[in-house]
Specification:
By secondary structure, the chain is an alpha/beta fold. The chain has helices at residues 49-61, 80-91, 104-107, 116-139, 168-179, 196-201, and strands at residues 19-23, 35-39, 68-73, 96-101, 152-153, 158-161, 164-165, 210-211.
Amino acid sequence: MNKNMCHISKNPGRTKTMNFFAVGGEDEQGNPGRLTVLDMPGYGHKSRAEWGEEIMKYLIGRKQLVRAFVLIDSMHGVKRSDESLLQALRENAISHQVVLSKVDRILFPKGRDATHQMLLRNATALQQTAGSIRAKLDAMNVAGPKPLGEILACSTAASLEKGKWLGINNLRWAVLSATGLNEIRKQPMLLNADRVHDVASETMPEATKHRSKS
């Protein structure tokens, strides 16, 4: 997404409002795109109680909501704040899916180009991380629907192929699938946390990390 439209920051608490983005442009009648993406304030460090109250009001009361995507830091796993949100989503039967963020820190922990063997080893570590998170989610003693689909994995700091950030196309596909718009798009090669080892093994013999300088 255009950075001039959607501002980002490395500092927690940068997003203070719920920001809506209509995707797909207007139709002939001037109606907004068929898909609306909502960026919400974080619920962890630097968050505020009043933000959480308003967020839950929206999630519970918004009938048009088809799926919430919950970002979990791959380096920290499921924290207490994550558990609280996931519990609320399940108790209120809100469709949701888990996304592991910052997976470059596991695949490329030292910030350098990785050989093929190093990448495969680190991909195995990411699979194990995803497995432990999945087990923790399954063990939650909460009534209500569990997270949908596979655990997705993504990063906006590294890629296996130049210009294509790790797992971002797969996350976009999950959004399209949730809204029923996937029929008009070609499905990308899947990159979820359970299959990242297979994807890594299909890349160049010497896989090179392309890392953002920002």
